[in-house]
Amino acid sequence: MKNPEPLSQSSNHPNPNSLPTDKMVTGAGAATSKKRQRAVHAANLTASTTTSSSTRSSSSIVLDKPGPNPIHKPHDPSLPSFNDVASADVILRLSVDPTLSDLTSDHSPDDVVLYLHAACLRRCKYFAALLSDRWQPRNQDGRDDVVSAAPYRISLEVPPAPGAIEARISVLRLLYSDDDDFASTINTAAAAIELLPVALELLFEDCVRRCVQFLEAVPWTEEEESRVVALVPLLSEDESKDLLARVSGTNNSSEEMLYGLITSVIHNPNMAYVKAFVAKLLREFSARDSAERVLERAFQSTFKVVKESMEDYTRPGVRGDHNETEAIQRLNLHTAMTNGKHLLWLVERMVELRVADAAVKAWSEQPSFTADLQRAFRDDAWRNIVPGLPGVLLRCTAKLSSAIASGTILVAAQVRKKLVNDWLPVLIVCKDNTSPLTPNNRPLYLDLEETFLKIISTLPMLDAKELLQQCLVFSTRNFDECPHLVMAFNTWFRRAARPPQGI
Questions:
Q1: Which H or E run includes 385?
Q2: Is residue 442 over pLDDT 70?
Q3: Torsion of Cα atoms, 454 then 459 then 465 then 466, to 10°
Q4: What beta strand segments (E) does 188-319 contain?
Q5: Fewer CB in a 10 Å sphere around the end CB: N or C, the chain?
Q6: Pairing mode, strands 90-96 and 111-116
Q7: Taking the complete model, does pTM exceed 0.85, yes or no?
Q8: How many Å apart are CA 92 and CA 82, to the nearest integer?
Q9: How many CB atoms lie within 10 A of CB 10?
Q10: In angstroms, rounded to a whole number, what is the distance separating the alpha carbons of residues 227 and 234?
Q11: DSSP assignment, residue 43?
């Protein structure tokens, strides 16, 4: 690796087009961390020294001394001016890396030549290492040459990306800036995203810090967020921790968020619009497995409350005066009714998302719960307290049963049999004692009768025979009012008349 060499002492204003072809050397050496080295390597950032008298064939653009920039404060006269030809001691050429450029393009991007100052360039570690004494030329006797007055030539090759050269010029200009200039330049997320990778390449820590601070504090678009996430691996752990905290969750953060939303809406009686919103979120949630686990968790906890409330109602364990017992019984019924409504909303969401398999199995394994319901609905106490309770629980049963009958949920024959076997007696009790109605004013128990008969038709002949005999109560005085029952028995007898099929 050769050291940067000064221009001829007699040439105070060198012709940029006569700059020799440069030999590329890396710049920052061991002065930076591994992540910074990766950043430099990723951008193919190189520096060059003058080793031959041949000139580049591509044209160069020389930036004149810039006028006042309306977004910057007036320049401090005590500091060197950016791109000042008269006082510059470093000549920097920015050119597109020919190994990465589009060889099919007829137009080659022009080089840019800047006249800069070592005192300002040393604000970033890349140039500080490149211009350090270890790279200064020495005489044969080992003494340092006095070259402080001679400009040095450095060439940086940049990737052929749109705006790559402009971004580097902006970062180099910030080497001449104070904090107010940083604020006026890094004033949008897009600007910070453009400048940050260049600042990382040049190891310009002040600029890196400012870009990261700005990005952490402002909103992003979805595209900007993707670009920020792509830049995170180039940052140190300390620099990236705030950005990562913003874009990265824990292993169960999505599920906990969903469960918290569901818990909030089902326990607030005035959240109809919010329930619709959460239902939409569940429908559009990308991780279906997570949505299923959250709904099952909410279903199990809510169902447990309903079952315990009905158990306490039918088998009260309190002793005291009549008024106290009655108050506790009313509380149990109200608790069952409130959580029954929550349960119906959860069942609807699970059926809608086709993730109700676990709910069907749980619903089909409730001989004790359905026995409690039968005892409760044979009394008249619940009528004046929670008249809608039978309808809520039968709607849950109807939703799950309809999903089975339509093939939306596929469960084993034994599960289908147990579901009908446990809930058919509840349906019969409700038919004898009440007629809960659906919104279309058709008795709910008739819909459930039809659904149960459809499920029975899917069972083996012996199981179907056992359950059909219990369905005789579906019949009415008018033969035409129970066609579903007639069809179910006719189907069973037609199958029974078929000779046994050998295997």
A1: none
A2: no
A3: -100
A4: none
A5: C
A6: antiparallel
A7: no
A8: 12
A9: 5
A10: 12
A11: T
Residues 222-260: tens digit of each pLDDT: 999 999 999 999 999 888 888 888 887 666 778 888 888
Tokens of 83: 């791109």
Cα–Cα distance measured from residue 90 to residue 112, given in angstroms and rounded to the nearest whole number: 14
Taking Cα atoms as reference points, which of 37, 168, 28, 43 lies closest to residue 94? Answer: 168
The token pair that represents 209 in the structure block: 């810090």
- The greatest distance separating any two alpha carbons of the chain, rounded to the nearest whole angstrom, comes to 124
- 408-421 confidence digits (pLDDT tens): 999 999 999 999 99
Do the strands 20-25 and 111-116 form a parallel or antiparallel pair, or are they unpaired? unpaired
Residue type, position 165, single letter: I
Q: What is the DSSP letter of 153?
A: E
Q: Which string of DSSP letters, residue by residue, matches 396-410?
A: HHHHHHHHHHHTSS-
Tokens of 487: 């069809």
Whether the CB-CB separation of 62 and 16 falls below 8 Å is answered with: yes
Residue 172, pLDDT > 90, answer: yes
* DSSP string covering 412-476: -HHHHHHHHHHHHHHHHHHHHH---B-TTS-BHHHHHHHHHHHHHTTS-HHHHHHHHHHGGGG--
What Å distances lie between residue 468 and 32, 404, 454, CA to CA? 82, 18, 11
Closest CA to 370 of 455, 413, 310, 435: 310
Residue 498 CB contacts under 8 Å (≥ 6 apart), including other chains: none
Q: What is the pLDDT of residue 345?
A: 93
Return the SS3 of 221. Answer: coil
Task: Specify whether the CB–CB gap between 303 and 312 falls below 8 A.
Answer: no
Question: Helices (H), strands (E): how many in the chain?
Answer: 20, 6
The contacts of residue 396 (CB under 8 Å, 6+ apart) are: 340, 343, 344, 347, 363
Burial of 485 by CB count in 10 Å (0-12 exposed, 13-18 middle, 19+ buried)? buried
CA 300 to chain CA centroid, Å, is 27
- DSSP-based three-state secondary structure for 52: strand
The predicted structure's pLDDT at residue 426: 93
Look up residue 474 and give its amino acid: F
What is the H or E stretch that residue 93 is in?
strand 90-96
Residue 384 corresponds to which amino acid? N
Q: What is the CA radius of gyration of the chain?
A: 40
313: which 2 tokens? 């109602």
Helix (H, G, I), strand (E, B) or coil at 335: helix
- Report the share of the chain in percent with pLDDT over 90: 37
Query: 152 - beta bridge partners?
Result: 6, 90
